[in-house]
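Notebook, p. 212. Picked up where the previous page left off. The plan for this session was modest: take the two constructs that came back from the sequencing core last week, fold each one, and keep the raw output in the notebook itself so nobody has to go hunting through shared drives later. Recording the first one now, exactly as returned: residue sequence, then the C-alpha cell string.
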Amino acid sequence: MRTPLKHLWQRLSALTFRTRRARRLVAACAVVGALWACGPVYIPVPPPMIQAAFTAETWTDADGTQHRLWTAEGTPRAEQARATFYLFNEQQNAGVIAVGAPDGTFTTPPLAGTEGDHISIYYRDTRGEYSATTCLLLTEMRPTAGACPR
C-alpha cells in the first residue's frame, strides 16, 4: 500500500525530472539558436590594387622635338604571374600592353603622357580572368587617384 507521503514524493520526483528535462531542452535550443544567429560575419574586402611606379624620360624625335614618355614597373604579386597588363592614359587616349614576368612584375614600353594624367590599369591572368581596374596618377610619387573619370 502506498502512503500519501511516498506518493507525493514520487510525483515530485517525476515533476522534477520532467522540469529538468524541459529546462535542458530549452537551454539546448537557446544555445543552438544563438550559434545560428551569430553565424560568420561577412565583411566585403575590395580586391587589392595593382601597384605600379612610373618613371619619366625625355626623348627627342627625328625632328628635334622633345617628348616626355613614361614607363611603369609593377611590384611582384603571385596572382599577376605571366598576366597581360593594360595601361590606358585617359587624357591622351593612348595606352600600352605589357606581359608580366613569372613573379608578377612587369615593365611597360614607353607611354605618352603629362604628369597628373589618369592611368587606368588592369590585367588579364593566365586563366583569362580580368582584374579590377585601378586608377593611378601619372607621377613619379606613386599616388592613387581613386576612380578614373570617364
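Okay, moving on. Second construct, recorded in the same format:
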Amino acid sequence: MSVLLAVYLSAVASAVPGRGPLVVGRAAAFLVAGGLVLAAGPVRAEECGNLSTMGMIECARGELERADARLNAGYKKLMAGADETGKALLRDAQRAWLRFRDTECAWEADSMRGGTGAAPVSLDCQARLTAERAAKLERILSDAPK
C-alpha cells in the first residue's frame, strides 16, 4: 500500500505543475483519512481504503450523512432550549459555519482541480468538518445545566 501511495502522490504532484508540495500534502492527508475515517452505509471506515474513486465517494457520502444527522440533532436540541435571541444567534452562527465549511472544502478539493480526486477530497472534508461541528454542539449540550 505504501508503494502505491508513493506512486499516486508522485503522479499527483507532477500532474499539477507549480503546485506539487501543496497537492501532495493535501492528497496525503486525504488518503490517510480516506483509509481510516471514511465510511458509508454497509461499508465501514476500515473497508474504504481499497476502493475505487466512486467507492471512496460513496464512503464519504455515508460518513457525511452520519455526521450531518449528528449535527442536525445537536442543533435542534440547542434551538429547543434557547430563547429568541439565542435562537437567532445560533441560526446565524450555523449559517456562517456552513459557508465556512463549504468554502474550506472547495479550497481543499482545489488541490485536485480537474482530477477524479476532487470529489472524494471535498466530501471527506465536509464529513470531517461536520463531525467536528457536531462534536462541538454535543459538548455544549453535555456541559449545559440539566
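Notes on construct two before I forget. The domain at 2-143 is CATH 1.20.1270.180 (Substrate Binding Domain Of Dnak; Chain:A; Domain 2).
Flagging for discussion at group meeting.
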